[in-house]
Structures are given as C-alpha cells and as structure tokens.
Amino acid sequence: MLVGYARVSTQEQDTSVQIAAMHAAGVRVIFEEKASGAKFDRPVLRQCLASLKTGDHFVFYKLDRVARSLSDLLKILDRVERSGACIRSLTEPIDTTTPTGRLMLQILGAMAEFERSLIRERCMAGQKEAMARGVHCGRALSVDDATAVAIVEAYATGLYTLKGVGQRFGVSDSVVKRLVYKKTKPNYRS
Predict the structure, then answer these.
(1) Pfam families, per this entry (predicted)?
(2) How far apart, in whole angstroms, are the C-alpha atoms of residue 4 and residue 60?
(3) What is the pLDDT of residue 36?
(4) What is the pTM of this model?
C-alpha cells in the first residue's frame, strides 16, 4: 500500500500541491500535518510511520517535507525499514528498495541540512546587520518607551523582584527580564 505524508510549516500554507501529486501517483492514505520540519517529534508523522506495514511505501512529495537534518532522516529511514516498508519521493530519484536509492536519500538529506544551515546563517547575518543599523528585530515591545524606562528603573532600585516589577506594571516577568537584560547587557538578544 502507498502511504503518503504531506507537510507544510505554517497554518497559512496548504498541502494541496502535495496532495494532488499523491493522488495522481495512486496514494489513497495520506497523513497531513502543519508543523515545522525542524522538529523531529511531529505527532502526525509519528502516526504515519506507526501505520506502515511490510510491503508498504512511505510516499512524500519532496524530501524536505519529511526531514530537515540528516540525523532525523536516518532515524525516519530506520523506522520505515524496521516496519518492512520502503521510501519513495514523488519529485526526487529516491526509492530505498535499491542501494542507489538509499545513497540518493542520504545525499539529498545531507544537502537539505546544508541548505537549511545556509538559510539560517544568512538570516542571522541579516538580523545582525539590521541591529547594527538600529532596526528592532523580533516582536514589538508590549510597553511604550516611558514605561520601559520606569520598569528598568524600578528593578534597578533593588526593592522589587522581576515578578514584583511585572505585577506593579501589569506585564509578564519575561517582559521585565527582556527590558532589564537589554539595558544591563548590551549584547543580549531577546
């Protein structure tokens, strides 16, 4: 039996292209998930892998829909093989019933991990450059500038704990901590 797995990272995205390709390939049982591929422990993926039986094919649209690191990919491959199933990609030359297919799976998995690392590196460099120009990165503060200064000053008196300052100003402990750390540790990144 062909058992499909379709995944997108966010609720705003949809799996329609992946699902259509699977239907065209004859896949009738499809597990669909909206979760980051960076996380290995995904409930629907776990359920999909647990459903595999001897002779089944674990089918996906593209390798990066299943795993973003080689170590995660190898764990998934091991689980699929222990169930007696094999892996098949609809867009890449992957078929683990052959030694060449297994090799391609590992090469493409390593490339996916490399690509993810490059993207992360570029994002971090962009954020660092933006911060150097004074651009605020991350969520907007939940308090105005005057309140932020008052929070830091109240904590600096030593009369209040982080929690106490938070209660006094009606904000969470994490907001207080972020403001205090930003003021006292210039290299702190929230």
Answers:
(1) Resolvase
(2) 6
(3) 76
(4) 0.60
Burial of 164 (0-12, 13-18, 19+ CB in 10 A): middle
Nearest residue to 90 (alpha-carbon basis) of 113, 55, 108, 63:
63
Q: Predicted confidence band at 27 (pLDDT cuts at 50, 70, 90)?
A: very high
Closest Cα to residue 132, out of 51, 91, 186, 179? Answer: 186
The Cα 29–Cα 48 span in angstroms is: 9
Q: Can you give the pLDDT at residue 93? A: 79
pLDDT digits (tens, 9 = 90+) for 137-152: 777 777 888 888 899 8
Residue 172 neighbours by CB under 8 Å, 6+ apart: 166
Catalytic center residues:
9
Q: How far is CA 158 from CA 45, 144, 151, 161, 162, in A?
A: 49, 22, 12, 7, 10
Distances from the Cα of 131 to the Cα of 127, 134, 146, angstroms: 6, 5, 21
CA distances from 154 to 159, 175, 182, 184, 185 (A): 8, 14, 15, 14, 17
Closest CA to 178 of 150, 146, 141: 141
User: At 186, which helix (H) or strand (E)?
Assistant: none
Q: Are strands 2-8 and 57-60 parallel, antiparallel or unpaired?
A: parallel
